[in-house]
Amino acid sequence: SVTNKHRGRGGSAVYTWEEVQKHCHRSDQWLVIDRKVYNITQWAKRHPGGIRVISHFAGEDATEAFVAFHLDPNFVRKFLKPLLIGELAPTEPSQDHGKNAALVQDFQALRDRVEKEGLLRARPLFFSLYLGHILLLEALALGLLWVWGTSWSLTLLCSLMLATSQAQAGWLQHDYGHLSVCKKSVWNHKLHKFVIGHLKGASANWWNHRHFQHHAKPNIFRKDPDINSLHVFVLGDKQPVEYGIKKLKYMPYHHQHQYFFLIGPPLIVPVFFNIQIFRTMFSQRDWVDLAWAMSFYLRFFCCYYPFFGFFGSVALISFVRFLESHWFVWVTQMSHLPMEMDHERQQDWLTMQLSATCNIEQSTFNDWFSGHLNFQIEHHLFPTMPRHNYHLVAPLVRALCEKHGVPYQVKTLQKGMTDVVRSLKKSGDLWLDAYLHK
């Protein structure tokens, strides 16, 4: 309830940040967008992006995240109207937790410029050609077997081509996933289902609900599922010390930089992700995504059963997943794992994203190899921006970071990969020191 002294113009309720921040529990969630206060407690359960991603901003200012995630904020605002309960008091600042107002305003000005220059608009031809080269790789792999028959060398070559097509399809579904966050983007939404389902055998809804949490709170423990290592690894500078002080030893963490090669890149896609995907589809009764995923396996076995039989085809897809998994892990982790990891710090959007991401040098190979995720900084700042525009906005982002003293890191591809191992070793050493001496 709101007393009379908390009434603003037109009788609307007004709140302080202190009052808003109290409503950060699962059964009681408020958030602020453009100084308007919304009660999202019930709406969070129906949020198209999932309950977790919106709940991560409970008790906070969610303006920057709201703008970043929605291709058409004005379309989405109509869903917010029934949730409006008031606004911030006139004496309250627009930013919470002492955020740098000048930095927030400058980043908003940059986003306005990006929108004005059309950098958030995708070029259909770019993605059509990209999809074409993925389909061509699959057709060539199958064509080689039809023309030349099976042999160890040809099977290996086909496996490499299929792993390449799977990795590139992974980057493409990532594009369509970000470009389909608004239901008005119906074709992007359907293409996302097709690419991740029919071309990869995975679930669009599983990916959306998991990946958007990563973008909302990158490298934040308990909020970013990408750093939920299930006690297999300790990450960053703080988690190892916390585990060490508590004498937690689920694994020999001081050797994690070594066993990472045995259970990280080889298993994340073929084992961990596959289990998660099918468990999620069945538990959520997501029969549409399940049908798309099964269409992939039906097509795969129809194509390769004549050459390898049932068990040979299972071995082939397992080996392809094994190869793809290495590609996926190194590309995604070289820009995140060596960066800062912490508990919630309520930072502004730019500072939060820059502390958790770095770029890899641009080159034709790096762009293709990583699906343009060598521009992780720009991708995280503007998640709905099509990848072909990252290089255009990068100089503007770098200039803004220099103005406000925010580190903007760019590494070589080799350094990015070696830093993954170095960061694991550093974290393992921190754990061992805390475990033995504190």
Could you say how many structural domains there are in total? 2
Q: Provide the succession of SSEs.
A: EHEEEHHHEHHHHHHHHHHEHHHEH
Count of individual beta strands: 7
The largest pleated sheet is described as: 5 strands, mixed
GO molecular function, one term: oxidoreductase activity, acting on paired donors, with oxidation of a pair of donors resulting in the reduction of molecular oxygen to two molecules of water
Keywords: Fatty acid biosynthesis, Fatty acid metabolism, Lipid biosynthesis, Lipid metabolism, Membrane, Oxidoreductase, Transmembrane, Transmembrane helix
Protein name: Cytochrome b5 heme-binding domain-containing protein
Membrane topology: Multi-pass membrane protein
List keywords for this structure.
mainly alpha; Flavocytochrome B2, Chain A, domain 1; 2 domains; two-stranded parallel sheet; disordered N terminus
Describe what you observe in this structure.
Pathway: Lipid metabolism; polyunsaturated fatty acid biosynthesis. It is a multi-pass membrane protein. Residues 12-89 form the Cytochrome b5 heme-binding domain. It is found in: Membrane. Pfam families: Cyt-b5, FA_desaturase. This protein has 438 residues and is mostly helical. The chain has two domains: 4-98, Cytochrome b5-like heme/steroid binding domain (Flavocytochrome B2, Chain A, domain 1); 100-438, no CATH class. Helices cover 59% and strands 5% of the residues. The chain has 18 helices and seven strands. It has helices at 17-21, 51-55, 63-69, 73-80, 101-116, 124-148, 152-179, 186-198, 204-216, 238-245, 256-263, 268-283, 287-333, 349-356, 364-370, 376-381, 390-404, 413-437; strands at 14-15, 24-25, 28-33, 36-39, 84-88, 359-360, 410-411. The chain has a five-stranded mixed β-sheet. Strands 6-7 form a two-stranded parallel ribbon. A hairpin with a 2-residue loop joins β2 and β3 (28-33). α6 (124-148) packs antiparallel against α7 (152-179), α10 (238-245) packs parallel to α18 and α11 (256-263) crosses α18 (413-437). The protein is globular, with a radius of gyration of 23 Å. Residues 1-5 have low confidence and may be disordered.
